[in-house]
Amino acid sequence: MKALVYGGPGQKSWKDVPEPTITDPGDAIIKVETATICGTDLHILAGDVPAVEPGRVLGHEAVGTVVDVGSGVSGLREGDRVLASCISACGVCRYCRSGSYGQCLGGGGWILGHRVDGVQAEYVRLPFADLSTYKLPANVTDEAAVMLADILPTSYEVGVLNGRVRPGDTVVVVGVGPIGLAAVLTARLYSPAHIVAVDRAASRLQAAKQFGADIAVSADEDPLEVVQAVTGGLGADVVLEAVGTPQSFETCTTLVRPGGRVANIGVHGKPATLHLEDLWIKNVTITTGLVDTYSTPDLLTMLAAGQLDVGQIITHRFPLGDIMAAYDVFARPAETGALKVVLSAG
Length: 346
Description:
There is one protein chain. With 346 residues, this protein is of the alpha/beta class. It is built from 13 helices and 15 strands.
């Protein structure tokens, strides 16, 4: 079969690899029908995630059809159409028992495309299949469902819920790529007074307005002046960091009001300065997190009920075999206008 293989920083190739097989009774094998590329994949290719070894098949967001299951799998059968979660869960360790699946001690957590071969392939082995897949309702399309593999639960849990967005809040989203746009979309569920989008790309700021941000400001201007103008000089109640650079994180800490919350969603590959000389007296809460995907069932219910419109995140579509071209488009969003690219099997 063909798969997208990581060859080390800056290196990737679409090439023949052996088809996956059942290696544990809890495994399932799915034929990948729809997949996508995550900003984290770009971080891997930049060398920001050294745990990923050369030879690893990348990708952790997919929808597919079950073609084989291990003897220990009870909830799936051949032919089931499923969402493959970006997080795998053993279900029995201390963290899994508390719903913190991203911190799984039993061999799960974020492993797909990280510590085991991922989903940017024609077939993939899914460990802990009963707890790490979701059967899809007939009225939910593959394209919509794949947005729930990672970006929607990540933005919702690590951003909106960690940031404790409440009615009437002023929420600032720094970085409105796919994760930031999903944060805008899910923050709206809590009726904030203002959602301020900050980015350098005009196309992404325009997209943020379409997703529900009422204010869009270029990062090259003065976001602080804009935020203070709509909050009577206080600053934002909640600031969501969705870029993953030192500058974006430090910007977030300047925009938050005393007593406010900064929720870091972005993947960081370099140190960021924490200006405690300014923050220690301001009662500011800063949270970090890896998604646990405990919210996926709720998000899937909302999606099936028509309460979430995720289709507008998708800007480009490619056959799975054109994944190298898809990576090129996704990696140059300022030029291509790419938000989320979708790869579909023929």
